[in-house]
Amino acid sequence: MDDALVNMGCIVKPGVANPKAATEGRTYIVSGLARSGTTMAAQVLREAGLYLGKHLAELVCEDREMLAILHAGRAEMLDRAIAARNAEHRDWGFKIPNIHVFLRHTDLSRFRNPHLVFIFRDPLAVAARNAISEYFDQLTALSDAVVAQNSIVAFVQNTDCPSLLMSYEKALIFPDEFVDTLTGFCGLRPRAKARRRAIDLVRPNPESYLRGARRHFAGSVDALQEGVLHGWCCQLGELEPVALDLFLDGSKTTTFRADRFRADLIAAGFGNGNHGFSIDLGPFRADPAVEVRVTVSGRTFELDNSGRRLGDYMARSVSA
Fold first, then answer.
1. Residue after which a domain boundary falls, among 163, 190, 212
2. What does the alpha-carbon distance between residue 260 and residue 275 come to, in Å, rounded to a whole number?
3. Rounded to 5 degrees, what angle do the CA atoms 259, 260, 261 make?
4. Considering the entire predicted model, what is its pTM?
5. Helix, strand, or coil here: 127?
């Protein structure tokens, strides 16, 4: 078979040539939709020898420092971080999904000789993973994935950076070619053993990823006292208060945060204890027969004891 006729799931956009790139060094930005295979690509690059940051979230190979800077939206912080890494490494990179949300294509000029690596995956598979790991509604997640993928394509089209676009599904079929194309684009020449280890990383559903990639929430609707509904919710391992949605008879009524301190929560080991909520139902004129549901905002995760009639909560007790 003519190899030129085989679809390897790869698009290379040359970009504008920079004759000084080989001597000055390059910055490689690995991105794509969240849950699209960016972790696999980053793991391959790290195994092949590319520096991806000092403070990595090991499970997903994500640069925590760079992510915090981009979340803050502080250009001066980003410039300082870039300058520090340029001084320490000729070539370096970082992996952050959805980079188009944090940076405009014009912001790429802040980086030294930026090269983009984008991983693409079947949007339906991305949506299904987000439904499992993030508790998103499946069809909403699918719609969001399609829109976001189009935004990524537009991002690549608007930049003159050299770009490598690769298919996650094709990578699983042709792991050797995936590794060789990816490392070649990034100027890496791993030794035979390192290349073999990198190829071994190209596989679906690694157990460690499946165990750790899902968010874990805990919480409960506890009681109704003098018209105030009490309960709690937190994301395990996180201190940031969780936003919740209140539904009365199936209609979303309000969104609020579980951020009140409760001594029983800190005693039970739930974060810093600032995960309780007390919401006055008086303005909603809810009668005892109304069905009450409380979910993590925008997600399908529902608190324990949610889904009861309002009157059922009146006899319960709540800790303060």
1. 212
2. 6
3. 120
4. 0.80
5. helix
